[in-house]
Specification:
298 residues; alpha/beta; Spore Coat Polysaccharide Biosynthesis Protein SpsA, Chain A; 2 domains; 37% helix
Length: 298
Amino acid sequence: MPSLAVIVVNWNGRDLLPDCIGSLLSNGYDPLRIILVDNGSEDDSVAFCRDAFPSVEIVASPDNTYWAGGNNLGLRHLAGHPDADFVLLLNNDTVVPEGSLRTLVDALADDPSAWAAGPRILYAAEPSRIWYDGGIVGRYSGWVRHDGIRQTAGRRGFETRHVDFVTGCALLLRREAIAAIGELDERYTLYAEDTDYCLRIREAGGRILHVPRSIVLHKVSASVGDASPRKFYLRSRSHIRLLKRHWHGWRRLPLVPSQVAYFLGHAVWHLWHGRRSVAFALLSGAVDELAGRPQARF
């Protein structure tokens, strides 16, 4: 099998590591390297990993460099030991069933036009339901969404296909793609870094592959919180940054009505459900990014 390196970024996720790393080690993939990038955790994540999983390579950062920065630290670590044909960026709040790594790598290896690939991702708390089954980016609307979200997995097919983006929850990259595209953009802080990277791949001529026969279970929002105002503030900022970077000239014109509808619709939905702080954070993130203001505290 081609050599595979898995980068797992961790921040105070000691309780998540046994399931995540344990599932990787029991996946049956060889040769496999696991790199844990610890983003300045204040729990005993590093000490636990050293004791429980001595084969795991640890890159310890004194600060929280977030998802993009943590993965970049992992990529730089790998650059000093360039023996991985493929690199998987994997969230620490995931579980990878046996055989899924090989299925995903085989699919990407068999498609020379594809530079990146991702699995079908299911809710860990409800494995019959889909969280991600392909990424869609509206060419004119700018809407970014997961295909198949919350649908029953058994009602969808298993055909491998090309998509617009792969979620960073489980993003497999060719070594050649990393060499061509470079590092992730750390200016996003949180969210949209994965979509940005995939759009950069597509602009460079690569394709993005979705492999539904490869499965990953995701403990959704275990680190940020499902209805956290901070989550929605950062998501809004990152979304506007993504649009500013990849939509130019006349292509920005259709974005105005679609994005106004998108943000106002979501804000009204949260207000209807009594989440005033979330609605305010969502709109504030978009306005602050457009105005170039410093990041607000939420």
